Amino acid sequence: MSASIILIVRALGRLCIDAISALGRLVLFALATLSQVFRPPFYLREFSIALLNVGYLSLPVVGLTALFTGAALALQIYSGGSRFNAPEVVPQIVAIGMVRELGPVLVGLMIAARVTSSIAAEMATMKVTEQIDALVTLSTAPMKYLVMPRVLAGLMAGPVLVAVADSIGIFGGFIVATQTLGFNPATYVLNTVNFLTSADILSSMAKGIAFGFIATLMGCYYGLNSGRGAQGVGTATKASVQAAAVLILAANFALTAVFFSA
Amino acid sequence: MITYENIHKSFGSNHVLRGVNLTVEPGESMVIIGGSGTGKSVLIKTVLGLIQPDKGRILVDGQDVTKVKRDAFLSRFGMLFQGGALFDSMPVWQNVAFRLQRGALKRPAAEAREIAIEKLRRVGLAPEVADRFPAELSGGMQKRVSLARAIAAEPEIIFFDEPTTGLDPIMSGVINELIREIVVEMGVTAMTITHDMTSVDTIADKVAMLHRGTIQWCGPRAQMAQSGDPHVDQFVNGRAEGPIETLR
To answer: What is the mean pLDDT of residues A94-100?
Structure first.
């Protein structure tokens, strides 16, 4: 009996140590990445390509997701609000829901699915095929050449994508509310604008920055630390998306608590 | 001159290098032979800092490789990787001229392209290949491009990691000849990892055999056949029976 308890405690202890050391490695990687921001050389071409991939090419999926979510949200709020005779709160709740929560979270999860996976797969393949080693032998630091441009692109594209998602999501709600639920367009817009505060928008942008950082950092971290062969690439890709999604949701909670707990 | 002093390296419980001592003289073409998984590639990668040895030190021209300025140090080396390791996101000429487009050796793009095309020509590739992507090339062509990249910045020391792996015998012969020509022409110090005895015959001035983590035998290529070492004898003649254990 006591032997089995020792085994369980030992397994739990090992699990905790593994989790803490993994977190430590991740934090060190993040710090190493951030420490490179202002140090030359700067690879502008790589940064531009990363910005295109992370930001511009994510616009369709982010826009469509936000549009349908905003539209569905309007229907749900109208239906739910009618139960206690308050269907008129649709513009306010759609606005606050999209800007404070759904816009940033949807962007975070969408770029985790699209960008994190692609970065992890690309870097893991580069590692498996010795391209990372080749970079080093060609006097080019992978941290500067591969990681920095992508993470910087995530930091910059994140808030822009969130702003786009917020706007399109609100627009989705507007379309449904004015076309099918009988809301007056001018009143809807006025209620939306009047209800939102600068703190709502600020929190949305802050979440965009944080989620862009997490999504790109996870792709780079798992890609550069992948195992060997096709299985290594697959495992790194899967782990990067899982970690990015969980960390984005955890960061969302933490940031929401910081901005709105008072 | 490259000097390995008592180099040890383990990966978990696998003790790959167990005290390697080896010297490669300037301008010499040293070929390291040994079975698969004996740590031949690890030996090269420890010089470049891609793998850190657990114990021992490596000197290049008397300088400890852990105490040099990395950029300047690495600019002295060229390396041909086993699988080519070409960057598939950029065309061939940018691969070849990679080092000439950034860092201390940066040149204007037109000049870098010019040099890349010249190096491609040197390894027997037409200028039209310059704008193609690595994925569009055959294995032999990729090896040539990788060779062109290794020599593009006129290094003093070149490492060749399994240069003929995956190539047909004729293409292997061509690559071996090219390596020999380039090594002689440029007067570089070369270290080649291989288990292809044709490569040894063409490329080597000296041969070192790595077995069970140490240098089993080292000497001029011409003396290899009369080494008197049963390990070398078994390896050179490709015999299944002998002191080197084989899995069946």
So the answer is: 95
Query: What is the mean pLDDT of the segment spanning B82-95?
Result: 93
* CB proximity B48 to A under 8 Å: yes
Q: Which of A79-88, B52-61, B108-117, B215-224 has the weakest average pLDDT?
A: A79-88
Please say whether the beta carbons of B16 and B42 come within 8 A.
yes
Question: What is the sign of the dihedral through the CA atoms of B215, B219, B225 and B226?
Answer: negative
Number of domains in chain A: 2
pLDDT of residue A1 exceeding 70, the answer is no
Whether the per-residue pLDDT at B217 is higher than 70: the answer is yes
- Is the model's pLDDT at A37 over the cut of 90? no
Which structural domain, as residue segments, surrounds residue A73? 41-260
CB contact under 8 A, B48 and A137: yes
Contact between A224 and A26 (Cβ < 8 Å)? no
pLDDT at B234 over 80: yes
Using the predicted structure, report yes or no on whether residue B190 has a pLDDT greater than 70.
Answer: yes
Question: Pick from B22, B17, B35, B26: which is nearest to B217 by CA?
Answer: B22
Average the pLDDT over B163-183 and give the result. Answer: 88
CB contact under 8 A, B102 and A140: yes
Closest CB from A134, A139, A140 relative to B85: A134
Q: Are residues A74 and A17 in the same domain?
A: no
**Domain B1-68+156-163+173-248 classification at class level:** alpha beta
3-state secondary structure of B62: coil
Q: Tell whether A31 and A130 lie within a shared domain.
A: no
Model ipTM value: 0.88
Kindly state whether residues A30 and A45 are assigned to the same domain. no
Distance (Å, whole) CA B161 – CA B203: 13
- Arithmetic mean of pLDDT, B200-221: 93
Looking at CA atoms only, how far is residue B48 from chain A in angstroms?
A: 7
CA distances in angstroms from B236 to A79, B197, B198, listed in the order given: 82, 7, 10
Average pLDDT, chain A: 94
Q: In chain B, what are the domain boundaries?
A: 1-68+156-163+173-248, 77-154
Q: What is the distance, to the nearest Å, from the Cα of residue A105 to the centroid of all Cα atoms in its chain?
A: 7
User: Which residues from chain A sit within 8 angstroms of residue B83, using beta carbons?
Assistant: 129-130
DSSP calls for B10-27: EETTEEEEEEEEEEE-TT
DSSP code, position A1: -
Residue count (chain A)? 262
Specify which residues B206 forms β-bridges with: B30, B220
CB contact under 8 A, B77 and A133: no
Q: Pairing state of beta strands B63-64 and B55-60? A: antiparallel
Residue A68 has a CB neighbour count (10 Å cut-off) of 14
